[in-house]
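>> received
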Amino acid sequence: MSVGLGSYELQAQDVELELLHVQGQVYMVAGGGGNTTIMAGDEGVVVVDTKLEQASDELIALLDEHFDVPIRWIINTHVHGDHIGGNARVSQAGEFLTGGPAAIYSHIGVMVSLVTAEISVEPDALPGNTYSLPSMEFYANGEAVQLIHQPAAHTDGDSIVFFRGSNVLVAGDIFTLNNYPIIDVNNGGTVSGYLDALNNMLAIAIPNRIQQGGTYIIPGHGRITDEYELVNYRDMLTIIYERIEDAIDRGLSLDEVKAARLTRDYDPVYGSDTGFWTTEQFIEVIYNELSE
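>> returned
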């Protein structure tokens, strides 16, 4: 997986965005890359992840149509181009409270990955407000916004974002509903860190009646969800992790582990034999990490 903003292909005519109200002041915009989260109020708009660069004009137009306030804040959950590709255009389309373009926030790991990548990144696309402590907070539209670092999970610069007043948690690509966890080893991701991040999100999310509703969770890709599905995802990863760990303890090679099909009961939901992230790649990352 690449850091590059041009690493994901999307034609402008293929962009179709959909705005969905989550709860409170929070909305989700699907399509055009990773999910975008919007928190809007009298002070302005908070944008979490700006999609692919090719979708940025459509995203700006959607925000102009539905929210009669400026874009003030942008948050990047991690470094991949389907989540931060629109940084420069969306920032320039906004205005910070003290003037200038909308401010971009992220963990410092995102900035480091961008400035050291073998690509050219526009200065306006870089997050100018980074944090290196476990968390960062600010207040917007009458509610607290928390960025909480998840070390060495999907990447080494992941932030989950919690809108405390609206009770909505934004997971970035630490939680995606339709595939096995994507561990970007080249950008510092680890399986153990990914598991820790899922458990950290579970410590924040509180369900309503019958384990449904309550804290809503916006994944990096896929539908709006809640604690119940997050628990299932965490349990799936834990079970597969322990199965592969047991296989290694019994002396099985990587090829033997793949042949044993230790993920077969989960493959119909999360597995894939094609694309940029296959079941075999997922197994190999776990095997290599546990073997070390």
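>> Residues 1-13 have pLDDT under 50 and may be disordered.
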